Amino acid sequence: MFTKILIANRGEIASRIAQTCRELSIATVAVYSEADRSSPHVYAADEAVCIGPAPAKESYLNAEAVIAAAQRVGAQAVHPGYGFLSENPTFARLVKEAGLTFIGPSPDSLAAVGNKIFARQTVTKLGVPVIPALENPSRDPNVLQKQARELGYPLLIKAASGGGGKGMRIVRNEKDLAEGVAAAEREALAAFAEGTVYLERYVERPRHVEVQILGDTYGTLVHLGERECSIQRRYQKILEETPSPAVSEKLREEMSAAALTVAKAAGYYNAGTVEFILDETGHFYFLEVNARLQVEHPITEWITGLDLVREQIRIAAGERLGFTQRDIQRRGHAFECRIYAEDPAHGFLPSPGKVLLWQAPTGPGVRVDAGVESHTEVSVYYDPMIAKLSTWGREREQARRRMESALRQCVVLGPTTNIAFLRDLLAHPAFIAGATHTGFLPEHFAQWQSEATPHLSIAAFAAVLNPKQSVPQASHGGQSFNETPWQQLGGWRIGN
Amino acid sequence: MKTTLHSRGSTLVIEYRQEGDEYIVTVGDKSLQTQILAAHDGALTLLVGKQLLRAHVVSDGLRTFVAIDGRVYEFVRGEKKTAQSRQREAGRLSPEIRSPMPGKILEVRVAEGTGVEAGQVLVVLEAMKMENALTAEGPARVRTIHVAAGELVELGQLLVELEFSQTASQADQVN
Q: ipTM of this model?
């Protein structure tokens, strides 16, 4: 087993990985950019190394700087988390060549599944269904127009080496085609340093269902059930659940078998996720493999009782999985809500700035994975996700109610967040009924405003009492500065 | 003394006085009574009728944030308002296109002196890894462009000035 691991990531996932390492008595090394000097993930680790300036390209995406840091501190392994370098085969290879262990699949598997065009071709040969697509869109606008017409609208433009919705565009008619392709290429180039895009037929009202897999280097490969991640804005998930309300035991078996077939063909080991599109008639299509730990992994941990990071580290250290498919018991239901510093009432525009107050919820069946604390700066340089709340219940409704309660308790003051939006989402009848699809938010929440202000008057009173401001004098001479309620009751210390 | 607060485009006038254990709070024409059970570390415990409420209060310059029962209320004290919020309240279109966040200008899609339609993209801004298209709120003419592609911009920085057709003559007079 390793004695020191470098965590090549930031935010909640870096802190979460450090926690498991501590449990396993493995020392941890954080890396950070100049913008993240005082971020919680830095002091969640035992050591920390600054790897460059704020822009991700110069720090968290700088493979040489990360590997040099790992060598300098004497780490034996690198955990990439999700995003950044996690699915970059070149990085995985460089880590290996530096004599270190990459905690993830082999560079060859990464390369095989990472290129979506290649993955589609391989998967089709395995008999796993895929959505009709145009893999080599022409550079000639006239030819492209013809090709797109043959494929049929609506179309989805995707980055060949992408994820997280970056470089993705729906095109509903011909006149938006050229514009959509150009924007997708730009976003892909900025996010992945690789601007190739491809086109596929867009399935209406699809569900996004993915299967978690886990395999060791000795060929044991198991699945940990599915997660439904249909609730998305800007193609990014904001709420996930397991099991999916739309997946029967029979469908689960079929999808899991397909997922394992894909993984096996890629010689896949460590943790991975096989994503599918599930249409309204119960047919599923292979989408892509996410060759990393997923953001939403906590809900699988809730229902299986496994610690996926622990399994990842054990597998990377050459240990055997030690359990088989039969040993995996799924129990209950779990939800995850991603708390973003963004404004759902204004197109989910990111809302960077200082978190003036952060208070995490607690309670039975509540888990918090937070990347911020009070006084953490939500930077403009990175993804605005600040925390993940997950809840577990014996059945879906209990888990849902626990999430409602957790969101109510969660306090984020400073940046605007999506907490009120998530609460309204959880309370929506169609959501309660499990009638979700990837267009759920545009369909039900397109004009959403945070309407409810039940305690506006009392909130205004609390704001007026705030002693940090010039304190108001009572109109009838009853009070002076020293006799405001804060002073009378004592204990006010701002910022503590 | 009355305190004036602004919250989401509405103005609240708050007044309070103490009577024994109770505070009599008047907000506009509404009045309520409350007892403060505890107040420390930025958290107030209030009893309003039979309802027990916990309020977290934090200030940041002019802004004060209050969280009660999972909802956040944001207040700005006094008469100070941004030009934009005043325009929004008055239902007027904003001729000034300002950066909603710090970021990088990817593209400037219009030229000075050209006409634009409502919803037409003026500038594409990249911030927090996403592309954000800044659009014209109504049909207008592009008066001045203050930025170029590749430029880094700050929050609130003036990017483009428009001239809306119905106010064009007025705007000319101002110049």
A: 0.79
